[in-house]
Structures are given as structure tokens and as C-alpha cells.
Amino acid sequence: QVQLVESGGGLVQPGGSLRLSCAASTSIIRLNAMAWHRQAPGKQRELVASISRYGSTDYADAVKGRFAISRDTSKNTMYLQMNSLKPEDTALYYCFARAAVTSRDYWGQGTQVTVSS
Q1: What is the spatial distance between Cα 14 and Cα 28, in angstroms, rounded to a whole number?
Q2: What is the pLDDT of residue 102?
Q3: What is the pLDDT of residues 46-85, one digit of tens each?
């Protein structure tokens, strides 16, 4: 069982920045992939950014050039640096992980990001 705990959400003005963190209860080296998803009210959950166990990254077109996903294996933590935030980035942001051996998926409880003036 893997527990994922997000933090770092909040209210920010358009153009501002936030950094989300996702702390895992296990060594993230054991995870095949980790990712950030988000879900805005009335919309489907969507993939924002992902990072593989080898460190390769991928981003949704809507956030390319503004968001950066990273991880610190010594802290078993994944991050999402969000810059130049827009009102349309407002959503509940979820941490996701897939175990390497079982391919089981895990989700965090979500952290709210609100971009508003």
C-alpha cells in the first residue's frame, strides 16, 4: 500500500506561482511513474504532468512552458512548480503513482489550487 499526501495548494493571483508537493510513504524508486492530475468543477480529471522512474517528463499542452515536474528521491517527494498561473488552472490537483511490480495505481486526496484576483 502506498500513501500519497499532497500539499502546497492555495489561493494565488493570476501570474503568480505555487509549488505543490506529493510525499510518498514508500521509496519512489519503486514506483514506475508518478504524475499530477487536476479536476476542475464540472470537468473530467486530466493529466497535467508525468515523470517516469527514469526521470523523463511529459506535460499537457495547456501547461507546457509554465509548469515543471520534478522529484527528490532522497525525500520520496514529487513536486509541481507552477508559474504564470491562469484562472483556468483552478482545480483540485491530485498526485498519482503506479507501482512498478504490481502496476497498482494510487491517488492522493488532492490539494486545491485557486487562481483569482
Answers
A1: 32
A2: 84
A3: 999 999 989 999 999 999 999 999 999 999 999 999 999 9
pLDDT on residue 101: 84
Tell me the CA distances in angstroms from 7 to 43, 61, 93, 102, one per residue in order: 22, 24, 10, 26
**Residue 32 CB contacts under 8 Å (≥ 6 apart), including other chains:** 52, 53, 98, 99, 100, 103
> Is the distance from CB of 62 to CB of 75 less than 8 angstroms?
no
Chain-centroid distance of CA 44 in Å reads: 16
Residues in the chain, overall count? 117
d(CA 62, CA 75): 29
Q: Does residue 100 carry a pLDDT above 90?
A: no
The pLDDT score that the predictor gives to residue 63 is 98
Cell numbers 476542475 correspond to 40
C-alpha span between 41 and 114 (Å, rounded)? 12
Residue appearing with cell numbers 508525468 = 50
Q: What's the CA gap between 62 and 69, in Å, rounded?
A: 14
